[in-house]
Every structure is written in C-alpha cells, then in structure tokens.
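Exercise 3.2. Students should predict the tertiary structure of the chain below and write it as structure tokens, then compare their answer with the key that follows.

Predict this chain's 3D structure.
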Amino acid sequence: MSRLIFVNLPVRDLERSVAFYEALGHAKNPQFSDDTAACIVVSETIHVMLLTHEKFMQFSPRPIADAKAGAQVLLCLSATSREAVDAEVGKAVGAGGIADPTPTQDYGFMYGRSYEDPDGHIWEVMWMDLAAMPKAPAANC
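Answer key:
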C-alpha cells in the first residue's frame, strides 16, 4: 500500500477554504469532514485537512502561525506540463487566491509557479522533464 500524506492546515473560515479547494477541482471527503474540519482529496495519496483554529489547537500546543506574515511551510505539487502549472495557478486566482507569491522558476527542464490560498498558505506547482534534466544540479534549484 502506498503511504498517504495528510497535510493539516489551520483555516479562519472553513466554508470559504472548502470552496477555494473545490474550485481547484479537489473533492471534499464527507466521511472525514464536519463543522470543524474538512478533508480535501487532492489525489489518492494526498489529503489536505482544513481545520478551524479551535480544532487545530487540539493537535498542537504551539500557537498558530500567521501564514500571511511569515513562512511556516512550503507545499509543492507536481504537474503534468508547463501548461498545467499555469492552469492550476489560474484556477487558484479565479477562486480568490493570489498568484505567484514566490518567484516563478524556469530552468527549461523544470518550471514552477505558486499561489496563496485564502489563509496565506503557499502552494507551489511544478513540472519537470527528467529526461532533459542536467547531470549537475541547477544553481538555484
């Protein structure tokens, strides 16, 4: 069995966050969702748990960082093409996200952009052509 990843994100407005991720084409799994949390299925192995601040604090004694004021984590998803990268960022912007909070990366064999969700969490979307990848790492990768 493949390992699963559950990314747990604190959100201020659960309904707004669910609508944002659904607009990106992801589905909510009602089996693991209620009025304090929503499980967003990104793929068979990737799930994002959107948790109200109160719910999130049940899992961590640490204060919740303000993702709009500082970096807490960078999340990166692969894409099937350069066009798919641009399309996903476009969907995020159409759903109320902010495009390119980090610089676009274009190394020819690798192309990536990013978007910010309503709570300030940064998601990178990246495409790579492994066959065209140079033997030595790129300077800024």
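Discussion points: Residues 68-141 form a domain with the 2,3-Dihydroxybiphenyl 1,2-Dioxygenase; domain 1 fold (CATH 3.10.180.10). DSSP finds three helices and nine strands in the chain.
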